[in-house]
Fold:
Amino acid sequence: LKSILNVIDNSGGVRAECIRVCNQPGRGIASLGNEIVVVIKSVRDSHIAKVRKGEVHRAVVVRTKKEVQRVDGRSVRFDDNACVLVQKGTKNPVGTRVLGVVANELRRFGWMRILQ
Structure:
């Protein structure tokens, strides 16, 4: 909670702050593929952005600094914490493109629209 994440889609958001981890009662730690609730802290260009500063959105964690153990024994970690904004109730992204690398573990959690 209260982590600052980079928004890596073209929805217009740049930085977002995590305020809630969904579907994890009693545990405030999000990992790859978890859905979180974020507040948009900064935007690119406010006149063309799909999101505004201060808005509350759902997002999916796609990169974490904390390493994640894969099934084959390898561990993966990234240089930053990043998320992709998604529409509430669906698994559709708000933006149309994902700008940067995302973890392959999203396949296990059903986030295929982000990986395309």
